[in-house]
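Quick log. Single chain, no ligands specified.
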Amino acid sequence: MKSSHAVNDRVLAIDLTSGKTSTISITEEDRRRYLGGKGIALKLLYDNIAPGVDPLSPENIIVFMTGPTAGTQSPAGGRFIVAGKSPLTGIFVSSLAGGRFGLSLKRAGYDGIMVRGKASSPVYIKVIDDQVSIEDASSLWGMDTYDLQEAHKNEGDWVTIGPAGENSVRFAVIATGRRIAGRGGLGTVMGSKNLKGIVAKGGKKFGPADSIVFKKAVTKAQQKVKSHPNTGKDLRDLGTPQNVKIYGTSGIMPVRNFNRTSFDKMNGLTGEKIRDEHFLKNHGCVGCPIQCGRMGRFNGRELVSPEYETIGLMGSNLMIGDISTIAEWNEKLNRLGMDSISTGSTIAFVMELTERGIIQSDLSFGNPDGIAEILEDIAHRRGFGNELAEGTRRLAEKFGGEDFAINVKGLEMAAYDPRGCTGQGLAYATANCGATHLSGSTHAIEVNTYLSQHGTKGKPHFVRFMQDVTDAINSSIFCIQTMYPFLEENFAYKYTPMPIMQFIMRNLPAIAVKTTDLSDYAGLMSGLLGFKITKGDYYEIGERIFNLERLMNSREGISRDDDTLPARLLNEVREDGWPPIELDSMLEKYYRLRGWDERGHPTPGVLDRLEISH
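-> predicted structure:
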């Protein structure tokens, strides 16, 4: 039964060099193969960027893309994705954010925007009810992300960069409301195009193409989100800092540049501590029932409460245990427009370089003095901040210390030490964009749950599975947190005794993966788009998207040599005696499961099966 539509099926294309705009149609075939979100964004990049393009050149393209879920009753579906070629890594990256911009862009008549070229002076793009214009942004240049959005909130909902993006900091972010598209330096790409921001506003309404199928699927999905302890209670109560207590006591959180397993001030950084002493109110993505974001009072100021990643990289990794200080740094990072993960990792690397006498600086572990100032210096590329603005890989190439420069493919590592969750190590090594925690997040099933923290049992199967499912989720677009209720609230997972589930997942991973139920995602997509998507179809879509991105990065020179981890993680035994990661054996099995060749490239047979042109 056809009743409405969930998508616009068109993308706004803008060339800032010429000032010309056009429209790209999204076909039903595109939807069947890539859904929306990350999938469509990557397909646009694949079709429009030649290999070897400089990420900071006018020829690079940045794509903002929504998913079929935005503007509908789908739970946790109001997000959007940004994709492009990274100035930090030199390969393709994508980053998700919440806020209201994605919904407002869609309501203005477009599912996405593709921007290329470079304006001759600062500009911003305005998309209001299908009307598009390129406006002068000279008066906005230099404003921080919060001040700009507050001063111009009547125009609509924004994505914008801060001073870091304007000054070509390689890990600059894109801000929207209080949310951040944080990884890979796509804010720097905007800055290189003299694009300060995009503002959107519109009045279009959306609904499912098949209301009967969708109603059945969304009723079940919403109930699962409410009933699962993580999405129904814990995230709302504690936010992502709930992980501090779990991972801080399991040797997973980064400590002292990923050199130790414990930090004696960890209790001061927990979600429980923030809730009891600092919490003011929840906030979150539009229409999301979880509302995991949190505002708090820190040092007498109402500030965004830091997320787990920020606490890990700007807190324990620097040996800083004062959550109020971290919250103030987080506020500064958001305003300046810098990724807290890359920033914290880069500062920790400099602290260790200093400690070893390789360079001279005033930065040292456990000492907060000078950090607020260095954040400003990085964002404005002043003094030694100009060196830190390049990230850990380039710093190591210039000064040394490659063995303890904690990045993969140039992307600084998220806040999970893989020596305490070895599957996450394989996920980091093989993630297309580098060391992200949002591609194959196996740490969630390794720590006190289904898989063991150490060893290799079941790890290659589940890394591959979760990478593919995550890419399908990021193309739908749902929040990644929906994996908990949608997968664990199904009968087999919910009612099988944990010892039996652990035995199956560790010893019979192929069976466990094949029988995992993706029907909630498939049902919601079927109802929204109006054509049947089976559980198998949904998984294959994710596999197609993951392989497409691998192909794109292979054309940029990525191979098995790059699917590795920092030497510290492969060779050093930590203070508690945990062994280094057995990466090579996992990697060989992972490649076989993928059907890739020994260099880590998708074979013609795999690409043909997935209908990827090559």
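The chain has a mean pLDDT of 94.
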